[in-house]
Amino acid sequence: MVRLIIDTDPGVDDAFALTLAARSPEVDLLAVTTVFGNVGLAATTRNALRVLALCGREDVPVGAGAARPLVYPQPFEAKAVHGEDGLSGRAGFLPPHARGAEVEDAVTLLARVLDESPEPVTVAPIGPLTNIALLLAAHPHLKQKIDRLVIMGGGLRGGNSTPAAEFNLWCDPEAARRVLVEEDVPAVLVPIDLTYRCAVDGTWLTRLRESGPLGEELEALTTVYRAHYNQSLGFDGTVLHDAVAVAEAISPGILTTTRVPIHVDTSFGQGRGSVIADRRLTAAEDEPGFRPVDIALETDLDGLREFILDGLR
């Protein structure tokens, strides 16, 4: 069984990722922590609580974390993609969480859960990396308690927030650099190069809706998100970026990784927040300013879509 913590900024695809983990019999979901990102921290925390309530998992503690990046303000949120409330205007239709968020902040909750765990824990950050950067800076002795980080973020061939940068890393490039380049915790990076290829179509979403009340509720969360991808992808479907990363956290090896030295750009040029991957045949693992990271670039696309669908329904 995988011992798992999810750090998230729900977000429609985050809601799918949370549900996948919360409903999986292979997962011991130890905690959920929230961060600013797709919408503000108050909304991401509310959304995480309500998705867990929808899944019948109010036993999972939720800690609210960073409300802003480490250094510079977040340029803009992703309300145009996810809706004003982060869930296509449907957050208020989800059941309220009886307990609410923990008194502990996200970093304190992360540190306590890791410290108390008898075995190493997988941590899946699927939003900006601010909470994880703070955790590793404040509690470096807990690195040994992290089995691996499975991170959704980055794009080797370009971004979705800027021509160069993917949203999660672009929200807090300084945090992303600290976690991905300056730390030594084992990490798998799941970039948009792969997640876009894992897009699901209208038929898949219909199968989800027809699977039962939970599937119906999840499909209803996608209206704004689906319309955005309808326009950007040119077909009726959507991209479940974060669920792809959580699938790897649940089932290690479902994504095929390649070890690549990477750098995160924290300059103020056009490349800010981008991942620079050294894919030369002569690339050195000790290149200054780079760290080797396992990057997920391939998978059985149809098999992955079925894995996620089966988990959600």
CATH H-level superfamily title: Ribonucleoside hydrolase-like
Shape: globular
Order of helices and strands: EHEHEHHEHEHHEHEHHHEHEEEH
Number of strands: 11
What do we call the CATH topology? Inosine-uridine Nucleoside N-ribohydrolase, Chain A
Helix content: 25-40%
> Quick one: biggest sheet?
9 strands, mixed
Which structural class should the secondary elements be placed in? alpha/beta
Unreliable stretches (pLDDT < 50, length at least 5) are: none
Radius of gyration: 18 Å
For the largest beta sheet, what order do the strands appear in spatially? Answer: 3-2-1-4-5-6-11-9-10
Instruction: Report strand %.
Output: 15-25%
Task: Please provide a written account of the structure.
By secondary structure, the protein is of the alpha/beta class. The protein has a single domain, classed as Inosine-uridine Nucleoside N-ribohydrolase, Chain A (Alpha-Beta Complex), CATH 3.90.245. It has 13 helices and 11 strands. The strands form 2 sheets. The protein has a 9-stranded mixed β-sheet, with helices on both faces. Strand 2 (27-34), helix 2 (41-54) and strand 3 (62-64) form a beta-alpha-beta unit. The protein is globular, with a radius of gyration of 18 Å.
